[in-house]
Design brief:
34% helix; globular; 144 residues; 27% strand; 4 helices
Length: 144
């Protein structure tokens, strides 16, 4: 098996959007093909160099799209969209992706790596096992 994590290209966007739709659409009915394409396209355009594909034997099996921002402690790297196709979950690819993005962040002088996870989804425990900690901050949303 030839597994690699590589920068996403414009040609990858449709496959990346489909993975988001397949994986997140199970939990949230607001994820549509149009929304997934919009989210991936926007992140790709705004954050060049911070978007990655997980590829196995030439097939995209996961996405890891990030953005950089400054905050209190310095330069943060925020994981915005991270998903591995269901058929490849539990095989270590997600762990390798987190190890990759942590190393990438360290090499590029980021002081923290952040992400959001739904409190009732299995991914939360996965992130905690990797060393992410809940900060006490709560994400709030008001629909307009």
């Amino acid at each position: 098996m030839d597994f690699k994590i590589r920068p996403a290209t414009e040609q990858d966007l449709a496959d990346c959007a489909q993975i988001l739709l397949d994986e997140f659409g199970k939990f949230d009915r607001e994820w549509t093909a149009e929304k997934a394409n919009e989210v991936i396209g926007d992140l790709f355009e705004r954050n060049r160099g911070l978007n990655f594909c997980l590829e196995l034997d030439g097939r995209i099996i996961g996405v890891l799209f990030c953005y950089a921002h400054k905050y209190v402690k310095g330069k943060y790297l925020r994981v915005m969209e991270f998903a591995v196709s269901s058929e490849f979950q539990g095989k270590g690819f997600g762990l390798r992706a987190l190890e990759f993005i942590e190393e990438f962040a360290r090499k590029n002088d980021f002081v923290a790596l952040t992400l959001d996870s739904h409190a009732k989804r299995p991914a939360l425990n996965f992130y905690k096992k990797f060393g992410f900690k809940e900060t006490g901050w709560v994400c709030l949303e008001k629909e307009l």
